[in-house]
Write the structure tokens for this entry.
Amino acid sequence: MPMLPLFTLRTIAHLSVWTFAALLAVLTTQAQPLLNIDFGNRSTQADKVGPAAIGLGSADYWNLYSFPFENFGALPVLKWSDGTVSGAGLTMANGPGTWGNEHPDTMFVVYSYSSGTIVVTLTNLPTALYSFYVYAHGGPPDNYNSIVSLESAGVSYGEKATTTGTGWRSTLWKEGDHYLLFQDVRVQQDSPVRLLVKPGASGTACLNGLQILSNKQSPIPPDCTPATSGLVGWWRADGDAKDSADSNHGSLQNGAAIGPGKVGQSFQLDGADDFVLVPASTSLSSASFTLTAWVNPTDVSAYRPILEFGGTTGPVGVHIWQSVNPEVTALSPGALFANVREESLGNHFIGTAGGLIKAGQWTHIALTYDGVGGQAALYVNGASIVTKNLGVFTPRTAMNFNIGRRPQGTSEGLPGLAFIGSIDEVAMFSRALSADEILNVCAVNDGIPDSWRQTYFGAGFRTDPRVVATADPDGDGANNFQEFLGGTNPLEKDSVPSVPLSVSTWAGSEPGGRDGFRTGATFNGVSFLTSDSRGRIWATEPVLTGFDTVGIGGHRIRIIDTDGIVSTYAGSSEPGLVEGPAAGARFSAPSALVFDSLGNAFVADRVNHRIRKVDAAGMVSTFAGSTRGYRDGTGAGAQFDVPIGLSIDSQNNLYVADFFNICIRKVTPQGEVTTYAGSLGNRGRQDGDRRTATFDSPVGLAIGEDGALWVTDWSNGLIRKIDPSGIVSTFASGLPFVEFIRVDQEGSVYASAPLPQHGLHKFRPDGSQAWSLRNPVGFKDGPASEAQVGHYGDTLVLPDGNVLLADPANNRIRLLTIGVPPLVEISPNGGKFENSVTVALSTSVTTVLNAALRYTLDGSAPTASSPRYNEPITISTAVTLQARLFVNEFPVSDIASATFTPPAPAFVNRVLNLTGNGGYVAIPSSPALQSASAITIEMWLYPLPTADNPTPYFLSKGDGQGGVTSARTYDLSWSSDGRLFFSVYAGQSTWALLGSRAPARRWTHVAATYDSLEGSFRLYTNGLLAASTSTDVTGQFPLKGQALRQTSLPLNLGAYPQIAGSFAVGDIDEVRIWNRALSPAEILAGIPRRLTGAAADLAAYWNFDDGTARDITGKGNDGTFVGGATTRVIPGFDVIHGQLGFTGYGFTRRGLLVLKIGAPVGAVVRTEASANLLQWQPIGRMTNTTGLIEFTDPDTLSFENRFYRAVAE
């Protein structure tokens, strides 16, 4: 039962539940704040709720610009989506009024309209790069459009128009229909942003809303600076074509312009004749080099030059083109191609497949050539796509450098051909950069700002391989992207964005007081947890019916040792006040428990109003307190009123949360009680000196490593901190009825607030919230986002970082597994499936722009060109699915992998089918079948009677004629009356056995063993001994010592070919020959089994299931079908596990089950079947006549477990 009674909280509303996908979204949004603005009329519409194109959900704050101008034409203070003040403001001009219409989203219900140009001005936006989502449409009528442009920091980001259509009325959040997106808008805080919305064909401009996304915590990244080592040219396109690395300045040719770029501005080229000319320079000519650039082509359907060395006459030099197939230098849309041409004009091609460069998207490209080893490589978006050894030569780069065009007048083909689109941040190095350097060059654009990397890795971060998004430099299991999202330090292992991943039951089950192993033990109201110096967990069980009243059950102190065994140390289910040995002591709602440095335990005995002591010898006594009240004093001279929380400092001073006295009491090791903070009856929330500070019902206490005392102020919903100097401050607020508190070694604070928020919260030492776990009330283990908790009690942080949570309402101790949530999850995460399986991919990153899950189904690593995940994937064949998260086409996660396997092909049982017309299987002689001292022969027989062959042979080893026994080794024949005749030929005589348990038209398992060392010859049918002998047929010669004759003779199945009338009719299956005599138990156990052929001493094995007479052992005893012998498929299965009678194993063949039972002869028995040995289904009833019963299971048999039993009635 909860520590605080539920009836006191009935009027408190239950707040929303946070999932951990939402938690990470919160973290992401904190890193990239969002401004939401709705243009409408407060008097005619509800406030906008829910996300638009981006956002978390209904918790998002929306700024409403309401008409008529209640804010005098302005919103002077805009708030971020989390409700915090941004400092930015908004004004509007030429937006005279509002209009309304029907729409499922309130943003579109009412909007601003104008026949002129609506001008929105944003001021004081923090300096950063932004994305603007502009919601606009045209009308009336609605099927016209509005034209939107955006200006910032003196740069125009172009003009875009909404789609001329009505799609925005019926669907939501389509770019072009509902909103226009302006990305990478560079904003300076002292420069306004202007948004202009003008009419399209309808003559009316309509503005619905605006969303602005950026990175509030970081300003604009420092200027994009490539790795400095070897940098010989850097053309940034920020206003001109100057070289920012050297003096290789270029010039804009034929109308080439400057416009919005990937980083700042870029070269704008029209595809006709625009280009940038950089004159030839010795600094741009080297034996090794790297060329890099950002490209955004308008079109990739044709091949066009990107970068090219060449003059106005003669052949060109090194060049990089788009959309060229490297094998035949023909069209390949979206490919990247380079010719590292040598000075002597030799061509050296290297290129990628198509589809990597996309129209209308920024793509980072790089070409490297190592003049020492001859290795070249092409990179796309930081990933090495192709490497090739081109040989060692001098590259042809001592020429003009042309950005975006092949020079006019060159002797090469296609002179004057030009690039159409934008090119930015062109750079050249006089060395071949490494793969890590390529990834870091020019702001890899993986969603992590340069300023973040520079903060942790220094100014040289671009050449530091540790800065890649997927790197984990501190080895804490979180890569740089996860550390960035979580606001943690990538270089400190203890700073890790860990959250609860799952909730499981660690100890307890149903209510009770049973000792035992963790989950086999029971608790009643377990609420408080602590650990001792030996690593044992101590738990107390207060059972309350009110703040100061108790019920039956609990009132114990329990210990869980390091082996997981729960034992009762003190107390009983009956509350009371009894001192003495722990076993006989009694408590009344024992609550918090702590240990001093001597190993003594102290317990807040809540409803006895005392602090009890349990010494190392297990003796319980009252350390401080007596009757209920308030009095400072020593020992029993002091009084408390419902002491709940308890903590202890390094000097063994105790601190007590004295709930109804509204203060914190201090108890010295000598038992002297004083008031440490707060005062009797003086409720409040005043901070300051501890002696004048006020509280309102303190409950939980904890002492940190620095000696500070932490207090949960229950009614105030606060976490208070009392520093070592005695100053009280408020650490966290907004936590109604917060109860339990724990501080770990790193100074992180864990606080449980059971109701109404029903959650567990972790705060970092600086007061920021690391995570919050809120679940519905109930009981359910599973992922943190799906689990249910009855009542959030005390916590205990384990050495491995996981957290134990007392759940008194469920009488359990729960385990919170703490870890870094994977960026990519696959559900289900692999396994076998029937027919097909639907697989979902998910990511916890929900608000990062241009994030995309990409996957492959062939086991290869996903790349930026792999399929993008948009909907669940249906899998019907064996595949290994690999998935990875990309941001702006750069990988930011590890690869998640799952293998899916369809069921094995349905088993088809085949048998050797014999028609008696000269058909059999011939098996040549082999060394594996030449054992002379001992053998076992097994097979299943299904004989059919025939008048033509009255004594058919189902097996023979020999080639003798008629009665010439000297050419025989052994044989098995059958007569139509069901008798089996098995003969062996050894020494100078013949040994034969006659059995009678192989009736016609029924499957019978037959086994024969011969052991000359033991002197035994036995015949078994269906696992039962049918006959045995130790002498020959004359009765004169003992078998012992008689070796088999002629073991090198061939083997035949289904006939003795040299004997007339020996051809069998019927079926044979599972023929096995062993080079030793199996025991009776081995024969019985092997009847229901199909073998792999690898068993020891197995000389040969034929099961015919593949339609051949192949020897499964691989020892070369393959047979040949002769005279029309063949195989056929029969119903039934080889292996059905069973229970033999009351004790052993049963077996079946083709649906027939044979059980040996222990019931008396004449008893009526009931046969039953089960799949799990728990639920049994009746099959039939029969009278036991021989101790061996046979029956058929009417259900379809399968390879699942199938157990049988016979029960005497």
User: Anything to note?
Assistant: DSSP finds seven helices and 86 strands in the chain. Residues 1-31, 216-225, 1132-1152, 1196-1201 have pLDDT under 50 and may be disordered. The two ends are 49 Å apart (CA to CA). Residues 20-31 form the longest helix (12 residues).
